[in-house]
Amino acid sequence: MTDERYLKRTIVKESVPSSLLPEQSRNLRIFLPPGYNEVLSYPVVYCQDGEDFFNFGRIATTATRLILDEGLEPFIIVGVDVDKKLRTAEYAPDGDRHANYIRFFAEELLPFVEERYSVRREPEHRLLAGDSLGGSVSLHLALTYPHLFTRVMSLSGAYYGISQNIISAAGDLSWLTVYMIVGLQEDAYETDRGVFDFVALNRNAKALLELKQAILFYEEKDGKHQWGFWQKELGQALSYFIEVE
């Protein structure tokens, strides 16, 4: 049974105006930690598939538990919603909305959040998080904007051939920290682009990132390509990046 203390939390809904996205705005849900105080400043986690991270990943509950029970420094979570019908177009590097989406993220969403909330603005206090294509688009955001993002949480990242080619073409990545997990039962997962072995995709991406000197945490464990697996991993993943006070 969930401790009731974990359910008393503040989640604010916002809409970011955009000149880069055709719909001209994007919805956010923002978790403010227990005791949030505008005078202080907080690390921030930016989640792709924001609605799923909150509803299926229960990230706000996990964050509250980590802060209250395990002494993690309080942090803010920004969940960025996505229209599932447009998700591949935005998240995949060869998608027709991808270039504008990552520009929106860096040039419109980031300033919007930083003007309104007490988030830290140093790259080492920003974390990009995503599952499947959300994991790979988080990595591509960091590779495109290394002065903004240096830390990526990748849950079963969809590192298709084009993503592997982008990593291969990158220079030295010793500035980048990537937390990667993949489930061993993800070896034949059906996507909108065909059936893929996500274990192999992640092993290949790991090898390429290591060649470029990126700092990696990598783990394979029992799990399927679904939130039932990722939800259980969020506590460990967040604890890897957020320090104990």
Automatic annotation (TrEMBL):
Coiled coil: none annotated. This is Enterochelin esterase-like enzyme. It comes from Paenibacillus prosopidis.
